[in-house]
Amino acid sequence: MPRTQLPSIDFSSWKKPSDVSICTLGSHTALQILKGARDEGFRTRLVSIKAHAPMYRHFGLADELIELPEYKDFFSVEAKLLETPTIMIPHGTFTSRLSAEDNKRMCVPYYGNKEILDVESDRNRQRDWLALAGLNLPEHLEGPADIDRPTIVKYFGAQGGKGYFMAKNEREFEAGIARFGNQPHVIQEYIIGVPLFIHYFYSPLTDELEIMSIDRRYETNVDSLGRIPLKNQEGVHIDPSFVVVGNSPLVLRESLLAEAFTMGRKVVEAAKKVCPPRGFWGPFCLETIITPESKFFVIEISARIVAGTNLFIEGSPYTWLKYDVPMSTGRRIAREFKSAMKLQRLEELLS
Ligand code: AMP
Questions:
Q1: Could you tell me the pTM of the whole model?
Q2: Secondary structure class of 301 (helix, strand, coil)
């Protein structure tokens, strides 16, 4: 049976940051998490696959580096992690390389609410959560016969935009399915606008929601099609592809910022109904598309730190307005633990 309760640990003996190690898996946002932990006075541990260990040694941010042959061998080192006070910070690799069940059976105190994993990994449940929050969502069309506008066909479990295709009528849908295969998918209205990824942080200790930073992704070839004039595209068969190759920073028009805060708050409140009673907390990201009419559509949520925050290891324009030190999302996480330890509320942040 998966474990959803914390093992019995007396957190009151975890008195100061230097008594505790912040730990993560070596990939995704690990460098940022370790740097932030160290900046706030915590010890650091990293679990890395052998092939990546030399790179992590190069940066020297892990007080202890534990090597694994492969991610799936994680449980062979868990007993070691449990020997000293350690908090595990999940990121994208925890869900891409390990299963939700693996995450749930981890015994090391884990930042965030594991119950949200099942909601997030099921496209329908995730959509219900966002709809309950009252956010604008692109319409889902029942079947190919209903395609009466540009759509994007998304396979379940696809990652980084791989294997999506566009269809503006039934014929294009059938051609796409013939090429990409008939696996479970959704047919979603295609929103023309700027993809904007808003990185939030929610603290249940203070009930405060912050916007840490914003990025937009560079996706090829959809973002590069504009470089080829339409007349030169004619006659050349180009399928738009949404594979992510990088991220660039973005600041939002200030008149839209209040709405970005409202959207984040609505998601936090709706999570309390979706995963009662605690909801979810910590870093999260709303993937939005903003139209020329300045309307936000939300296409997805990530309920943890996202890779776009790596652009902001020195902080972002938004964190600079609020903090007097460079505040990355990784450092904000460590600061949250520091506050929780002072208040003796550490347990509330863990599952
Ligand atoms: P996702 O896997 O949902 O993060 O989507 C990957 C990329 O596909 C996004 O960054 C967008 O560029 C694009 N995309 C996904 N859904 C839509 C949509 N409904 N309308 C327009 N573009 C979309």
A1: 0.94
A2: strand
